[in-house]
Design a protein that fits this description.
- Chain B: It comes from Chitinivorax tropicus.
- Chain B: InterPro entries: BPD_transp_1_N, MetI-like, MetI-like_sf.
- Chain B: It is found in: Cell membrane.
- Chain B: Its main location: membrane.
- The complex is a heterodimer.
- Chain A is mainly alpha-helical.
- Helices cover about 65% and strands about 5% of the residues of chain A.
- Chain A has 14 helices and two strands, in the order H-H-H-E-H-H-E-H-H-H-H-H-H-H-H-H.
- In chain B, about 80% of the residues lie in helices and about 0% in strands.
- By secondary structure, chain B is mainly α.
- Chains A and B meet through helix 7, helix 8, helix 12, helix 13 and helix 14 of A and helix 1, helix 6, helix 7, helix 8 and helix 11 of B.
Chain lengths: ~350, ~300
């Protein structure tokens, strides 16, 4: 995107624009792409703010009654809610009670001892903006935290997969021969099993659940598509004149691979990256739902949806609505953005 | 044709060996000591030693690899570590439930998607086309998980049209009571990507010269769409269907988990939870075989459907 702002100044001077400037102009000519980017920036900002601890820090603390109603339906019946609040009967301790309670003689002493400590009763809220879950945690905070975790997992796993796929694809496509044969074999082995089954098999082995584990599993199993694409590009590019020229001036293999060719395929990497983010977020949701993803001490969209199943039977739908709404907004927006990005960066591969 | 078949089968051998090697590495080197897992909560050294001996873990690695290789060749993966049932028996008991769900999905998905794709492609560019495609994009973006959770709640709990979960003994009760809701929910998600894909195949064919020729000769639109265009668009469509064959065997993890369907997918989940490695290995190998033969099947099918294709 920096290319766009840089060359927009000399737009009038020359008719030829750089590839990125052209692509960005194509991309942002429509309002749809701009709207998508705006929404995604909000999500990104929330994720970053969560990392540095600005928002949703206390998502884990019970601040409301169990299943507190959302604000807009405060008076709906809720066994724990204000509408059916119980008043406790104060029991006077008389001689009859004293005679059956062996501790009765000490009550005075207990009261004295209690006064030494400062106590504060934190009143629990009867309702929250979007309600609360079983433990009385605020759904808004929870869904923000869940977005942070899910987006982090999706983006980092996609980065890992694209790096692995690009590196292996570059090796196979550039060197050909034995390297290519070996990597093609590895590719055929990885694609011989359905992706999700492979992920489950690895999940059964890695017994330490955690966010980094999920990122690792998704990253090392999800590189195959990128590999395919980058390999075919490298096969195409390595015979071009500019590579011959680079060879003539004595550029090393790694320089030709990563300094000369890589910038020419980087737009494909970007498209792959955004495609994989959506795929991995969906995979993370499924994994966490099945209990092999993000540990339950943390929270993600998948964890929220798996908690929701028990609540729905009780008619507590607000956590589902929040998780589903936020997740769908992100995934739909990102999917649309990926399509637009592909059309702008890779006009030849435009979907028919 | 026969030489082609033979060569393709021979080409599969390195891949199969690779899958065997990868599973062996994963489960024998990265998975930790299975004896520790099996010995349970109160392990003592003698028991662990006994289990190690029983599983052959005290043998050198190449002997263990050879044992696994023999298991794959003979389709005999020993007994489950949790239930002590033979693994083959578990698989044959689970497969019918998965197929009861997935076969109707496979057939209905193809039929509905093809008919809709022909219709949408026929009116391509109009508002109907754009609306259908927009709905497709939106519904594709939402996870099957959400459809399943909400669908189970709405149709199972609120409306009570279907049991919330469960499974019966006979195919008829399963299809009429338990299976229809899961099938509908998977269809809802599975149709849209196929529809988008098939539409693009059909649109490509409609723009071909032979369609114009047929029109010029006065062939009716119905005949053009269903006889000329469909015949040509069938090749990529059938390919796409054949490529989804491995998925039929695995089933849907989410659906089987949510609706408690005793299929292969649920078996995988249980096996992963309990570190039941023989079952995971067996299912993974089985699906790898199905995937490879599906790929071969696709290539041969190409030849059958399109005589212009040369098998190299």
């Amino acid at each position: 995107m920096s290319g766009g702002s840089k060359s927009s100044k000399d737009l009038n001077m020359s008719n030829s624009q750089g590839f990125w400037a052209q692509a960005m102009r194509r991309l942002f000519s429509g309002w749809l792409a701009r709207a998508c980017v705006l929404i995604l920036l909000v999500f990104l900002a929330a994720t970053l703010a969560g990392w540095v601890g600005l928002i949703a820090n206390n998502w884990d603390e019970p601040i409301a009654v169990s299943y507190a109603n959302p604000d807009f339906m405060k008076d709906a019946p809720n066994p724990q809610g204000e509408s059916s609040r119980l008043t406790y009967e104060k029991l006077e301790i008389d001689d009859a009670l004293r005679s059956v309670d062996p501790l009765a003689a000490n009550y005075g002493k207990f009261d004295e001892a209690e006064k030494q400590y400062h106590q504060e009763e934190k009143p629990l809220d009867w309702s929250r903006p979007l309600g609360a879950d079983k433990q009385g945690r605020d759904v808004v905070d929870k869904v923000i935290k869940a977005s942070q975790v899910s987006i982090t997992v999706g983006v980092l796993a996609a980065l890992l997969a694209v790096i692995i796929g690009t590196f292996l694809g570059a090796m196979a496509g550039y060197f050909g021969g034995m390297v290519d044969a070996a990597l093609e074999w590895l590719y055929s082995v990885f694609t011989a099993m359905p992706y999700i089954l492979l992920v489950m098999a690895i999940a059964s082995i890695v017994r330490t659940p955690g966010i980094s584990t999920v990122i690792f599993i998704l990253g090392v199993t999800g590189w195959t598509g990128t590999y395919r694409l980058i390999r075919s590009e490298y096969v195409k590019q390595r015979g071009r004149e500019y590579i011959q020229a680079a060879n003539a001036i004595g550029a090393s293999n790694s320089r030709r691979m990563f300094v000369h060719i890589l910038p020419n395929v980087s737009h494909l990497m970007l498209v792959q990256l955004s495609q994989l983010v959506v795929d991995f977020i969906k995979s993370e949701v499924v994994l966490s739902f099945l209990g092999f993803g993000v540990p339950t001490s943390s929270v993600s969209w998948g964890v929220m949806i798996s908690e929701v199943r028990a609540e729905l039977v009780l008619g507590k739908w607000w956590q589902l609505a929040a998780a589903a709404g936020v997740m769908s907004l992100f995934v739909v927006t990102f999917g649309l953005f990926t399509d637009l990005l592909r059309d702008a960066l890779d006009p030849k591969a435009r979907r028919k | 044709m026969f030489a082609y078949f033979l060569r393709r089968i021979l080409q599969m051998i390195p891949t199969i060996l690779g899958v065997i090697l990868m599973l062996f590495l994963l489960f024998n080197f990265f998975a930790g000591d299975p004896a520790q897992i099996l010995a349970g909560k109160m392990p003592n050294p003698e028991r662990i030693a006994a289990i190690r001996k029983e599983l052959g873990l005290d043998e050198p690695w190449f002997v263990q690899l050879w044992v696994f290789f023999k298991q794959v060749i003979s389709f005999d993966y020993g007994r489950s570590w949790t239930t002590n049932e033979p693994v083959g028996q578990i698989l044959s008991a689970r497969l019918p439930a998965t197929l009861t769900i997935m076969l109707p999905v496979w057939v209905l998905e193809a039929a509905i998607a093809v008919v809709l794709a022909l219709g949408v492609a026929y009116v391509r560019g109009t508002l109907t086309d754009r609306v259908v495609m927009a709905i497709c994009t939106a519904s594709m973006s939402i996870s099957l998980l959400l459809y399943a959770v909400v669908g189970q709640w709405v149709f199972g709990s609120v409306l009570g049209w279907a049991p919330v979960q469960g499974w019966g003994d006979s195919l008829a009760t399963n299809l009429s009571t338990y299976a229809w809701l899961p099938i509908m929910l998977i269809l809802f998600v599975a149709i849209t990507p196929s529809l988008r894909l098939y539409r693009s195949f059909v649109v490509e064919e409609i723009n071909q010269d032979y369609v114009r020729t047929a029109r010029a000769k006065g062939v009716s639109d119905n005949r053009i769409m269903y006889v000329h265009v469909l015949r040509n668009a069938a090749i990529p469509i059938v390919t796409n269907m054949a490529l989804s064959l491995p998925g039929l065997v695995v089933g849907s993890f989410i659906i089987e988990q949510i609706f408690s369907i005793p299929g292969i997918g649920r078996e995988v989940i249980v096996a992963v939870e309990k570190s039941d490695f023989p079952v995971i290995k067996a299912i993974t190998m089985m699906v790898a075989f199905v995937t490879m033969f599906a790929n071969l099947f696709v290539d041969v099918l190409y030849k059958v459907l399109d005589p212009r294709v040369e098998l190299k």
